[in-house]
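To whoever is on call:

I kicked off a structure prediction for a single chain this morning and the downstream step that reads the tokens threw a length-mismatch warning. I double-checked the sequence; it's 101 residues and nothing unusual in it as far as I can see. Pasting both halves so you can look.
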Amino acid sequence: MRITWADRIKALFARDEYSYWFALITDEEKELRRMDSWELAKVIHEESVHQTNPERRIVAEHMLQIRVAKIQSRATYVSVVVGFLGVLAGVVLTTAIQCGT
């Protein structure tokens, strides 16, 4: 588990430092959230093979699907902006051609 600088700073200002670190280390959802896609895929594979904690597999699959959806939505937003700019360029060029003749 990687401990970020933000977690260390939060621990300085926590009322009970020991309960903060215990909650941080034992919270599996936070641990899964910090994993990259490859680590999540490894967790999904291990849970499907060993079937020790099916809830962890379900949460890992959900988090991986959320990341894929964010990547796809980002690509959709970029294509919408590029399409809109293309339409504006077409309108400007059409107007310029019509005014020039």
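Update from on-call: the warning came from a stale cache, not from the record. Cleared it. Sanity check on the structure: The CA atoms of residues 46 and 52 lie 9 Å apart.
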